[in-house]
Amino acid sequence: MKNLPPEALAEVARYFQVLSEPTRLQILNLLRQGERNVGDLAQACGFSAANVSRHLALLTEQGLVARESRGTSVYYHVADESVFALCDLVCGNIARQLDDTASRRKAFAPGRRR
Predict the structure, then answer these.
(1) E strand or H helix at 22, and its extent?
(2) Which UniProt keywords apply (predicted)?
(3) Hey, what's the torsion of the CAs at 32, 83, 10, 94, to 10 degrees?
(4) How far is CA 99 from the centre of its chain?
């Protein structure tokens, strides 16, 4: 992000904003297993088809997901696999932070003082 103009930073922020919603991350995880239509995704997520469609529209707008019409159905698939590398990086960082916090808490655990 070095030396990016404000317009470019705003676009980067929109990309991360799309990834900041748990339902969209759940949809991406489901699509990681293969393409699905809105009804399949809605059932797997436990949300309405309308709700899932709104999330898919945002994911599609950012280029993370692509859609393909087949007859009367629309199927979605991951268009940018690099999103999983980004998510794995973030998950690894969160796990390290949690491990560090747990280690620091152990220092204050009852029964450790003598």
Answers:
(1) helix 22-32
(2) DNA-binding, Transcription, Transcription regulation
(3) 110
(4) 22
pTM: 0.83
Give 45-95 pLDDT, tens digit per residue: 999 999 999 999 999 999 999 999 999 999 999 999 999 999 999 999 999
Tokens 């404000």 correspond to 6
Tokens, residue 104: 């620091």
Nearest-angstrom CA–CA distance, 61 and 83: 14
> Domain map of the chain by residue range?
6-79, 81-114
Q: Does domain 6-79 have CATH number 1.10.10.10?
A: yes
d(CA 30, CA 72): 22
